[in-house]
């Protein structure tokens, strides 16, 4: 398994295990964000989780996996 695969698995697990995560998680999406020189935003990743009711949350991280922001479901 490549290091990137492990990082993505850890981020998805971390997002699922955080307080406010709803069970059961029925959808998982990974969005890779390239850097934007115009807006000055760095590269990053966002993990979106959803439940069977259409509600979900998001975890944003830098490319090396440091969690920057967590938006729990229902917020």
Largest sheet: 4 strands, antiparallel
Q: What is the number of E strands?
A: 4
Distance between the termini: 34 Å
Record the strand order, biggest sheet: 1-2-3-4
Task: Summarize the structure in words.
The protein is of the alpha+beta class. The chain has one helix and four strands. The chain starts with a helix and ends with a strand.
What is the topological layout?
Elements: H1 3-17, E1 25-33, E2 44-51, E3 56-61, E4 67-71
Antiparallel strand pairs: 1-2, 2-3, 3-4
The gist of it:
The chain is of the alpha+beta class. It contains one helix and four strands; from the N terminus they run H-E-E-E-E.
Describe this protein with a few key phrases:
75 residues; alpha+beta; 4-stranded antiparallel beta sheet; 1 helix; 4 strands; 20% helix; 37% strand
């Amino acid at each position: 398994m490549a290091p990137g695969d492990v990082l993505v698995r850890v981020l998805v697990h971390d997002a699922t295990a955080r307080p406010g995560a709803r069970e059961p998680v029925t959808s998982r999406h990974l969005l890779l964000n390239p850097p934007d020189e115009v807006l000055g935003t760095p590269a990053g990743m966002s993990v979106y989780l959803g439940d069977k009711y259409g509600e979900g949350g998001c975890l944003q991280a830098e490319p090396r996996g440091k969690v920057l922001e967590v938006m729990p479901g229902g917020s």
